[in-house]
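Pasting as-is:
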Amino acid sequence: MIAKKGTAVVVTNRHRGIYFGYVVGESEGGNALKLERARHCYRYTYHEGHEGTWGLASGGPGKGSQIGPRVTLVVRDVASVAECTPEAVERWEAAKGKP
């Protein structure tokens, strides 16, 4: 298992997608990951000290980020998975939907 069921993660895929959600399970030999309460990150800004894609897992999306609505989905062609800090989870949960 890539991450324990229920763990909050940021997932990237080979198509440059960035997603936040809670692990439900994996399939296809770890190449697909099912997430619940998942959100797609269309555009993101940084929090100081939390730069780069993994800044979304350590600090969450910054002000001005564009985040999609919550859905259950399967992310295919998974490239990477990072567990989120409590600070990041709080910001993802508070993020407004895409303007």
